[in-house]
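debug: dumping io for the single-chain case to check the tokenizer round-trip. Nothing else runs in this session.
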Amino acid sequence: MKLRNTAGAALAAFALVLSLPASAFAAQGYFHYKFVDGFGQEQHITLHDPHSGKCINLYGVGDDDEEPGYGPHNDTDAAVTVYLGVGCSGPEWTLRAKGKPARDDLQVRSVRFHTDRG
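debug: decoded output
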């Protein structure tokens, strides 16, 4: 009988975890940055509700062979650390939640959103 109760409790706990919204692991809001593509055109990229706690190599700039992105703007509810290197390496800078856009001379290739809000 104890085994059945334990299994039932474990199953209920597992179901509860599955029912949590995915947004519990994401920064809520938008993160923007710019980069110049291979045709010399400035592109504006927006990440919507980006995943928190893991390194994100940014589209169009997430390779050391490409020019880095620039002018990041963190309009999410979580602080973010921006990195000049891929894989969240190299010089870094932290942007606060719901902050103002950074200057265009702040370059970025990868980011990591903080799991604690703020």
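debug: round-trip ok. The longest strand covers residues 29-36.
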